[in-house]
What does this fold into?
Amino acid sequence: MAIKMSSELLDGCVLGILEHQDYYGYALTQRVQESADVSKSTMYPVLRRLKKNQWLTTYDKPYHGRNRRYYRITQSGKDKLVGIKKEWNQFQAGINNMLGSGEQDE
Amino acid sequence: MNNYIDELSKDLKALNEQDRQDIIEFYTEYLEDGGFKTYDACLQELGSPRKVALKAMADRSTRASDETGPVNNNYRGNSKTDAKVIWIVLLAILSSPVTIPLALCIILFLVFIPAVVVLSILCALAISIFFIFASAINLISISFISGLTMLGIGFVFIGILLLFIALIQLIIHWIRIFVSWIYRKSTSKGKTEGGND
It folds into this structure.
């Protein structure tokens, strides 16, 4: 696909997913891949960046004798998500305005 | 899977223990959760350990130099980390065959030529300082005033040398920002808008 996901947008997507429920790394990667063609090795840097910015926190939960690390969105992560959504809507509206929106109007 | 993780761990040598541990834990958990048992299955899922390592490291480094990053106020005189960042990003660029001509240009212009120039100037300065002090010691026994003057000139040269070293650190820092920028452009993962770059 010629259109690439920017890192800002990917941050937003991950925050958007985590807004509904906490995920562990593998499941989160699967979830993102359901909707977007994103390289699996980009997930770690994204999660690390989000954590560094304190938009998410992590906690460990035992699972079959080992730990799974879960990611949970923070309040500032939710605020950030609102900002990204707003920016995306503007961006999307602008592009649609030029492309012609999804409706078949030709 | 263990082989894969071992290899990944080796490729992460450039990082400190804590960062490496963090990455290893993430991918160990990931591969266990996904049920990828053989080396080939892991390779299929994530790509080569080297690619995974470079991605984890290069991204961290370029991000750390973002103006927006909250934890980047330890730049000053930190050219050791700067050099490391440049090295990692160069490796990352080299690992992609498409960018080899670009990488060669960058290596040539950003590393080798400046390195030769800088080393020559450093050597010239060091040798000058040595001879100025040597002749100052000789002169002092003949003419005290001329000896002192020579000594003064020697100190001026030491000053120039120190200024020069500070300048080099500054330049390395700029190069680091530039290389990070190139890296972001070349992976086309960067922002599509002008944004806050």
